[in-house]
Design goal:
CATH superfamily: Phosphatidylinositol (PI) phosphodiesterase
Helix content: 25-40%
Strand content: 15-25%
CATH architecture: Alpha-Beta Barrel
Order of helices and strands: EHHEEEHEH
Length: about 120
């Protein structure tokens, strides 16, 4: 009757540099996406935002702290799915509160997700 889905909050924040101001608060995870998936997480909370106007400049954010570019994080997810075709993941990909994104960045984000996950998207 009830289903429990193990997951992580601000899942990709381990990519925020430890030396960044306030990183002790903003880095809510100390394991990579790959590590989290290998340890059983099946729900990922990915918060993104744009930097500048280059369409590919979509980064992981937690508040004002930025981490890795989004596409390498997405590639880790794709690799996990390829290696574990029987697994089912829930991805919540949202624009971080207060972050902006250009129309070109939004299109790049959607195209990247669609291209990477293709028929795996439900």
């Amino acid at each position: 009757r009830d289903t429990i889905i193990p997951g992580t909050h601000d899942s990709a924040t381990c990519s925020i540099p430890k030396a960044a101001p306030f990183s002790a608060v903003g880095r809510t995870q100390n394991r990579t996406i790959t590590d989290q998936l290998n340890r059983g997480a099946r729900y990922l909370d990915l918060r993104v935002g744009g930097k500048g106007t280059n369409e590919e400049n979509i980064f992981i954010y937690h508040g004002f702290l930025s981490g890795a570019k989004f596409v390498p994080i997405l590639n880790c997810i794709v690799e996990f799915i390829s290696d574990n075709p029987g697994e089912f993941l829930f991805l919540e990909i949202v624009l971080e509160y207060g972050r902006k994104i250009t129309d070109e960045q939004r299109a790049f984000l959607f195209d990247s997700i669609k291209s990477a996950l293709g028929e795996n998207i439900i």
